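Folded chain entry —
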Amino acid sequence: MRDNMTSLELALNILAETSTTELGKAVDPEGLEGNRDVARRGGKIAGDARKDIEAQTKHPVISSKNSKKLRLK
C-alpha cells in the first residue's frame, strides 16, 4: 500500500501514526473506547493538516496514481 503513495501521502500517514502514538502515551487510554478515541484524535490531526495543504495548494493530496506511475517522475 505504501508503495502506491506519494511523498505527501506518506508524510501525512506517518503524522497520523506518530500523533496517535504520542497521544496514547500522554492519555494512557483504557479499553477499546479509550483507544478508539485516541486513534480518532490522531487521525484528525493528519486530516486537518491534509485539508490545510489542499486549501493552500488548491490540489488534492490523495493521488490515484499507482507505484509505476509514481516512479516515472
Summary: The mean pLDDT is 90. Residues 2-71 form one domain. The radius of gyration is 15 Å. The chain has one domain: 2-71.
